[in-house]
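A reminder from the course coordinator: this example appears on the midterm review sheet, so study it carefully.

Given structure:
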């Protein structure tokens, strides 16, 4: 019988499965100006967000809606405050650069399956837009950002809401095409990719099934069936791109053992085919959740330049 692990032990297991290089990075003490703001009438903690205001601002601030990762099963909006792979370091740099951040919780598996997660993120973006003035935010300068499963939700919101709501999208190692994810992982990793759900099932025995991949659990269909393929194509951002999709910046490591690097390559091709301004930053050898994607001054500078370019009110 499995012994239940704590969330900290789960994160450690993930890091052991996906070795990373960490440096001596100071831990910023980001604190929200507005905490636990409900974005639906349900008053559910999993449907709430925290709003962080920039360190200095002369007026309503451009805002980044941040969507956490965690295989749609774990994770929290608190990643912006403290995170084992340095999301909080990037957040601190964004706040120092004049951006506000709205960090979003959304409903998680296994209690909630698709479309709960996509519905929540779309609702959160609409809430921030509609209530921006109340929190000192500029609704005309909104972007969305997320990593891993949160990157998928980020791209979903961007392709769903388009430029009516969002000026830019930034996604880290996102599974943009659930229909081909398992196949691409097998090709890139010779069948040796890390299955998040195997690790998470050890943390939640009797709750998460062994051997089920995260996309199967989300869609409640088995890979290889026509039902899975139909659902996967309906929800995957790769099939939802249009000329209304906001400019998109992708970051992905070639050594990612969880989400195949080719997922971002293919998504970039879809974006470019739809004439969406888009860039893929390839991080050679970087694994999933690798801190240098978030704490490197090189990548942070490129992210900020991208956001400033497309969130410029003159555009």
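Designed residues:
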């Amino acid at each position: 019988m499995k012994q239940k692990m704590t969330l900290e032990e789960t994160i450690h297991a993930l890091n052991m499965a996906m070795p990373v290089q960490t440096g001596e990075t100071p831990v910023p003490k980001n604190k929200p100006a507005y905490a636990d703001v409900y974005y639906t009438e349900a008053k559910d903690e999993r449907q709430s967000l925290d709003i962080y205001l920039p360190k200095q601002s002369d007026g309503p601030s451009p805002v980044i809606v941040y969507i956490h990762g965690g295989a749609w099963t774990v994770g929290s909006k608190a990643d912006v405050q403290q995170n084992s792979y340095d999301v909080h370091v990037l957040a601190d740099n964004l706040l120092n650069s004049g951006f506000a951040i709205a960090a979003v919780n959304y409903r998680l598996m296994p209690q909630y399956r698709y479309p709960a997660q996509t519905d929540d993120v779309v609702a959160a973006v609409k809430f921030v837009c509609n209530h921006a003035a109340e929190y000192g935010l500029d609704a005309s300068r909104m972007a969305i950002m997320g990593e891993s499963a949160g990157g998928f939700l980020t791209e979903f919101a961007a392709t769903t809401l388009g430029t009516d709501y969002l000026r830019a999208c930034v996604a880290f190692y996102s599974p943009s095409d659930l229909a081909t994810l398992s196949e691409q992982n097998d090709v890139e990793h010779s069948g040796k990719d890390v299955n998040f759900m195997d690790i998470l099932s050890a943390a939640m025995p009797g709750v998460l099934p062994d051997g089920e991949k995260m996309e199967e659990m989300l869609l409640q269909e088995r890979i290889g069936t026509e039902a899975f393929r139909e659902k996967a194509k309906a929800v995957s951002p790769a099939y939802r791109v249009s000329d209304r999709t906001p400019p998109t910046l992708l970051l992905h490591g070639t050594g990612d053992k969880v989400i195949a690097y080719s997922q971002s390559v293919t998504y970039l091709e879809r974006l470019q085919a739809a004439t969406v301004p888009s860039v893929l930053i390839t991080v050679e050898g970087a694994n999933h959740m690798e801190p240098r994607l978030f704490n490197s001054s090189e990548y942070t500078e490129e992210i900020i330049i991208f956001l400033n370019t497309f969130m410029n009110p003159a555009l």
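Confidence is low (pLDDT under 50) at residues 1-26. The chain has eleven helices and eight strands.
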